[in-house]
Design brief:
The structure holds two protein chains of two kinds.
Chain A lengths: L7 H8 L44 H12 L18 E2 L4 H4 L18 E6 L5 H8 L18 E2 L8 E12 L5 E12 L11 E6 L6 H5 L3 H6 L17 E4 L4 E4 L11 H13 L18 H5 L15 H12 L12 H13 L9 E2 L13 E2 L7 E3 L17 E3 L9 H5 L3 E2 L5 E2 L1 H6 L6 H9 L2 H12 L2
Helix pairs in contact in A: 2-9, 7-9, 10-14
Chain B lengths: L1 H16 L9 H35 L3 H21 L7 H11 L13 H4 L18 E4 L2 E4 L5 H7 L13 H9 L28 H26 L4 H8 L2 H31 L13 H17 L1 E3 L5 E3 L3 H8 L1 H26 L4 H4 L5 H28 L10 H4 L7
Antiparallel strand pairs in B: 1-2, 3-4
Classes of the chains: A alpha+beta, B mainly alpha.
Chain lengths: 478, 423
């Protein structure tokens, strides 16, 4: 666990304004979580949609065109717009932006609303030795359901049945906190209604996922792999109760095992592979990395397999050819992290101190230095503050989806970055956090932590309420 | 009175602090003229929007082919000064924050009014408001909550803008008004713009249903545009906050703001998102003024705005000129050849844009030019893109010549000087 740099003199000076409580000092660069790529524009609903500030003019065109494709509504093939047809046949969304709303965070559907920006991942346990081998070697994340594939698409093009509808039921669980405060957690349970293609496999496993925010992805990609792996402690040799496992997965372009960094269970190692995967699974768009024109349609969904597709010859047989994938990847890498708000506020600095003392920073690693990457100049050699170790941690039964993904177990999740989390409400109009948006705000998200984070969570429950308030304020200032 | 004197006094201090360039070109004077041009363009936009409002009032008072045509003409005229003002985006934070309400595009018109299901599609599952049709529905569901839309007014339009976080849910600004006046363009890459009948605004012999609500939508959207433009006019006025921010900062930061706006509009926004993307997709929907088929003018006046900000002279809609020290003067003082190159590049862009206008006026609309089979049209659009790219390259050289150094465009103090943080 990283120990905060600390200046006793500064702490004494600052302590005067906040009573006896210790204040953490503001560290150099801390206010600019994305290094020189950080933007300091208005913290309004567009706060996640700006490009890396250190990006030269010459790249603005690619960024804007990438944004155009990110917003683009894909249409059913065949259409007169050959360059943007090939939707589905099964899909969760017609456009990247429709799940990554305002480049921000998705949300569970309101009552009576069709799910957008959230869906269920599907898989079954490994059936054969070959299945087991594929997963153990990092070549596959999951074994798809033989009928429904790797995720439940709740939309389909005309003439085809959607796969089904995610149903969520919540139960409220009251939680008592110190100093007379209380909270309530909504515990979700998930099921599928209106199955469009008959019964799924008897051992079907489901995992709900909301679309994560798009900011800072290129910076996370640029953290040296060895630095992240060095923080892993799979057998908890240092005995701090925190393991941290590196999720390794096959890099399709790189042709080697790489650290998984993107997705709630670190399913993909690069922004490009993640984008390509989402193109194919979420929108049904083939591309050089995921060339299936029918997207997530399985062999049992024959009509879907046989439907017209948009993989035209002029686009190398792909619905999204290499240049489109590259533009979307470039865009996705360069969405800037916003500058911190109120970073010098005494309550925020006190919260930072509490964050460290409570052990949050053991997994939500505050800062990293990015590598020098000739292919990622905007992301190179930056001091960044994402508050994640990008490693897998056992988060306990409460959060478990009980659906392993590659080397990640059914109780493990990748530590998600915290930068920008406090702007969720401003950008997306809600503050639903965690992989399925069950937490309504930072406090509930903390209270859901279990497993390796149980002791930290318990400390938050029992700490003086002023400290708890400071902690939440700090997280919201990120 | 006292406050006014203080303002005047601080303005004098600012002027005195301005740094004169190599040949006596004062950067503060350049910034001041830039602000004057901004003020003039927004004021012209406001004047033109008020004329549009008058035409809209005539339309709704007596809907006819003539009054509808007059309103459309007024809309097209209103775009002329506004598009020229886009050069003030991308750098002036207050303009960027404001712009989304005024010129948001593209829009899912089914949110606002009836559409032809054959060409539009009936649902975009993930945009639940894709066919919400505000005009036909006094109650709307947004994110599981019921919105009372019984009264169509400015408030409702503002509330529904970007509803559900979907950027294509546009209910305010020029393009919402454009859709109101023209209706949906159902012609694909074939000829023809939207063709809404005037009777859609006729509450006595109503077509399309809910004419009273359609009238209220059009009038409210136009009123809101006027309100928004007023804010910008004030912001750039003698005592305006946007002007003050620009003039009170470091002169080099202000100059960088000008250059950022010109470069970002040329390169990313216009050449990239508005032109190259459409050309890659060959999609008629990818045209900026898609209902009115006015895209050629929209692009032309964007480019013109870039040129006249560089030159520091703007011809107002009444024919008078606003003219003063310019970025051109600053660069000429350091490198006359480069200034000449820049001017030549801006001229080439204008002739490439002129070719688009000429083609459109001869009957081939911009959305036809970007059609997949139209090699000649594609080449004309590509030529304009290439010209914009070329002028941006020269602009980059200008940045070097101006020695703005490490001034971070759109930056703040902390971005300019990261080492100062934490001290």
């Amino acid at each position: 666990m990283r120990v905060w740099g600390y200046s006793a003199v500064l702490a004494l000076m600052l302590a005067g304004s906040a009573g006896a409580a210790d204040l953490a000092p503001l560290e150099p660069g801390e206010e600019l979580p994305g290094g020189t790529a950080t933007h300091s524009k208005a913290m309004n609903r567009d706060a996640f949609s700006h490009f890396s500030v250190n990006m030269p003019f010459a790249k603005e065109m690619d960024f804007k065109i990438g944004n155009g494709f990110f917003k683009r509504f894909w249409v059913t093939a065949p259409s007169s717009t050959k360059a943007a047809d090939g939707l589905g046949p099964l899909f969760n969304s017609r456009a990247c932006q429709n799940c990554h709303l305002k480049d921000g965070r998705g949300h569970p559907p309101a009552e009576g609303e069709e799910a957008v920006s959230m869906f269920l991942r599907l898989s079954i346990p490994a059936q054969t030795d070959a299945d087991k081998q594929a997963i153990a070697s990092g070549h596959a994340n999951i074994i798809p359901d033989p009928t429904y594939g790797g995720q439940l698409q709740n939309f389909a093009i005309a003439g085809h049945a959607a796969e089904g509808r995610m149903v969520i039921a919540y139960t409220e669980i009251p939680v008592k906190l110190s100093d007379g405060e209380t909270a309530s957690l909504r515990k979700p349970s998930y099921s599928i209604a209106d199955l469009g293609y008959g019964p799924p496999h008897a051992d079907l496993m489901i995992s709900p996922r909301v679309a994560p925010p798009m900011i800072g992805l290129g910076l996370l990609e640029a953290i040296p792999e060895e630095d992240l792996i060095a923080r892993a402690d799979p057998d908890d040799k240092d005995g701090d109760g925190i393991s941290g496992r590196a999720k390794m997965i096959w890099g399709m372009e790189e042709g080697r095992l790489m650290l998984g960094r993107f997705g709630w269970k670190a399913g993909n190692p690069t922004v490009k592979q993640q984008s390509a995967d989402a193109f194919n699974g979420d929108i049904g768009i083939s591309n050089p990395l995921f060339p299936n024109n029918a997207g997530d349609c399985t062999e049992r969904q024959k009509a879907c397999r046989d439907a017209p597709h948009g993989g035209d010859k002029q686009y190398d047989g792909f619905e999204a050819p290499a240049n489109v994938l590259d533009l979307v990847t470039f865009y996705s890498r360069n969405l800037a992290v916003p500058k911190r708000r109120d970073a010098t506020d005494p309550q925020v600095l006190r919260g930072k101190q509490v964050f460290a003392e409570t052990g949050c920073a053991s997994c939500h690693t505050p800062s990293h230095k990015t590598a020098k990457r000739p292919d990622l100049p905007e992301q190179s050699e930056q001091l960044i503050w994402p508050y994640t170790d990008l490693l897998l941690h056992d988060m306990g039964d409460g959060l478990a989806d009980n659906r392993p993904e590659g080397m990640a177990s059914g109780t493990e999740w990748k530590t998600p970055p915290l930068w920008g989390v406090g702007l969720t409400k401003v950008v997306n109009g809600h503050d639903f956090l965690l992989h399925d948006g069950r937490a309504r705000g930072v406090l509930e998200a903390i209270l859901w932590h279990g497993g390796e984070a149980q002791s930290a969570r318990d400390k938050v429950v029992s700490m003086p309420k002023a400290d708890r308030a400071a902690l939440i304020r700090f997280v919201n200032s990120l | 009175m006292k406050r006014m004197m203080m303002v005047a006094a601080s303005a004098a201090v600012l002027l005195a602090a301005g740094q004169a360039g190599a040949a006596g070109v004062d950067k503060k004077a350049v910034l001041s003229n830039y602000a004057d041009i901004a003020h003039a363009k927004y004021e012209d936009s406001l004047i033109a929007a008020k004329k549009l409002k008058a035409a809209v009032d005539s339309l709704v008072a007596a809907p006819s082919t003539e009054t509808l045509a007059a309103a459309k003409t007024a809309w097209v005229a209103a775009r002329v000064p506004y598009q020229q003002s886009e050069a003030f985006r991308f750098g002036n934070a207050a303009v960027d924050e404001w712009e989304g309400k005024v010129n948001a595009w593209p829009l899912d018109e089914g949110l606002i009014d009836y559409v032809n299901a054959d060409t539009y599609g009936t649902e975009s599952g993930e945009n639940p408001l894709y066919t919400a049709n505000i005009i036909a529905h006094p109650k709307l569901k947004v994110g599981g909550k019921t919105v009372n839309a019984s009264k169509v007014d400015k408030k409702l339009l503002e509330k529904m803008h970007e509803a559900g976080g979907v950027e294509a849910n546009v209910t305010t600004g020029y393009h919402a008004i454009e859709f109101m006046l023209w209706g949906q363009d159902t012609n694909g890459t074939g000829p023809g713009a939207g063709n809404r009948p005037a009777s859609d605004f006729d509450t006595k012999n109503c077509t399309g249903g809910n004419c009273d609500r359609r009238v209220a939508f059009l009038v409210s959207a136009t009123d809101l545009l006027i309100d928004d433009l007023k804010n910008m006019v004030d912001g750039w006025g003698a005592k305006g906050k946007i002007r003050a921010k620009l003039l009170k900062g470091k002169p080099d930061t202000g100059i960088a703001t000008i250059v950022t706006g010109l470069g970002s509009l040329s390169y990313g926004e216009l050449a990239g998102e508005r032109m190259k993307l459409g050309l890659m997709l060959h999609d008629p929907e990818e045209e900026h003024d898609c209902f009115s088929d006015n895209t050629h003018n929209s692009h032309f006046y964007d480019a013109k705005g870039i040129q006249n900000v560089y030159l520091g002279q703007y011809t107002r809609i009444d024919g008078t000129q606003v003219k003063g020290p310019s970025l051109s003067d600053l660069i000429a003082a350091k490198d006359a050849t480069l200034d000449g190159e820049m001017k030549a590049k801006l001229d080439s862009t204008m002739s490439a844009m002129g070719a688009l206008v000429k083609t459109a006026e001869a009957g081939e609309a911009y959305d036809q030019m970007i059609g997949a089979e139209n090699t000649e049209g594609n080449a004309k659009v590509q030529a304009a893109i290439d010209a914009l790219v070329a002028q941006t390259r020269s602009l980059e050289k200008a940045v070097a010549v101006l020695a703005l150094g490490e001034v971070k465009f759109e930056g703040s103090d902390s971005l300019d000087n990261p080492s100062s943080i934490g001290k």
